[in-house]
Amino acid sequence: MDNFKTLPVKPVIKFSDLEKLDIRVGTIEKVKDVEKSDKLVRLMVNFGEFTRTILVGRYE
What we know:
With 60 residues, the protein is mainly β. It has one helix at 15-18, and strands at residues 27-33, 40-46, 51-57. A three-stranded antiparallel sheet has the order 1-2-3, with no helix packed on it. A hairpin with a 4-residue loop joins strand 2 (40-46) and strand 3 (51-57). The longest helix is centred in the N-terminal third of the chain and has 4 residues, at 15-18. It starts with 14 loop residues before the first helix and ends with a strand.
């Protein structure tokens, strides 16, 4: 942990800026490997009113 760096705290935003965000919580229903990739997976996420496919990966 010797190379651990803390980042500076970001400035406080206005409440009107926060109201512009659309943050949702969903349930991951399926996880599938992406063909020919060892860092990516495809998620099927249920948000209640709709389902979305989201591609996620890891960075090294």
